[in-house]
Specification:
The strands form two sheets. The protein has a seven-stranded mixed beta sheet, with helices on both faces. It has a two-stranded antiparallel ribbon with strand order 1-8. The protein is an alpha+beta fold. It has one domain. Helices cover 22% and strands 24% of the residues. The radius of gyration is 20 Å and the shape is globular. The chain is built from six helices and nine strands, in the order E-H-E-H-E-H-E-E-E-E-H-H-H-E-E.
């Protein structure tokens, strides 16, 4: 996705597999030199990190959740209360007041079983619902090949928040404006074309004329990868935070 919010590519995920198998194929055509790529936690895979850093000469900042249980447990056990490199941010929106605390810790000598790991980060979100006053707390962990000289806690927080550009400018539009999730189109290229605005020269048939079948799940599209930050002027660099 570009800084202006335009999707530059998507792939249909083959049956009986998942988005992980399409990660490299989706990004392979693009020059990602110097770009920091973020992705959903599903893509926090060792092979993906090697592909980005070694082959594409890019950087990665990846969320770590329970799908990587050992790595997640290691990150949770780090001495976060002793970390002095931190950044506080406060904001109000979407009916809540939020305080975000981003802590970053160098992990190059800690033996984490993840390629090119240079820093780990913990983002703690304290939220107050402005309607009922309910308080919630959530901690999110991430890992990156960016060193502390390349990415401060403030910068890490900015890059991670830019991942929401996908939700705000792509998924939300397709799911609400174009009602993609409610579509009954299930055949061929129909699901992929349904949510795509028409462009000059398009020759594809209207999705309303596509055959409809209710019994089959919709083919999945991999759209969860975000080139979030890179050199100024790079065509895939997002300027949103």
């Amino acid at each position: 996705m570009t800084g202006s919010g335009q999707a530059v590519g998507q792939l249909r995920v083959p049956d009986r597999t998942n988005e992980i198998t399409c990660f490299a194929a989706l990004l392979k055509p693009y020059d990602l030199t110097g770009v920091t790529v973020t992705a959903d936690a599903l893509h926090t895979q060792r092979g993906h990190a090697r592909f980005l850093v070694e082959e594409k000469k890019a950087h990665c900042l990846l969320i770590v959740k329970a799908n990587q249980p050992v790595l997640h447990a290691r990150l949770r056990s780090l001495p976060w209360s002793q970390v002095t490199a931190r950044r506080y941010e406060r904001g109000t929106g979407h009916g809540r007041r939020e305080t975000r605390v981003t802590r970053a810790l160098t992990v190059t000598d800690l033996g984490l079983d993840f390629p090119h790991a240079a820093q780990a980060a913990r983002i703690t979100r304290h939220r107050t619902d402005l309607k009922n006053g309910r308080l919630t707390r959530q901690a999110v962990y991430a890992i990156t090949d960016l060193t502390h000289q390349q990415a401060s806690p403030q910068r890490i927080g900015e890059i991670l928040r830019s991942q929401w550009t996908i939700e705000n400018r792509l998924h939300l539009v397709r799911d609400t404006t174009f009602r993609e999730d409610a579509s009954k189109v299930r055949t061929g290229r129909g699901p992929g074309e349904h949510g795509r605005p028409a462009e000059p020269g398009d020759q594809h048939a209207s999705s309303s004329r596509s055959p409809r079948h209710r019994g089959r799940p919709s083919p999945r599209l991999i759209r969860a990868v975000h080139p979030a930050a890179g050199p100024p002027g790079h065509p895939l660099t997002s300027t949103s935070t």
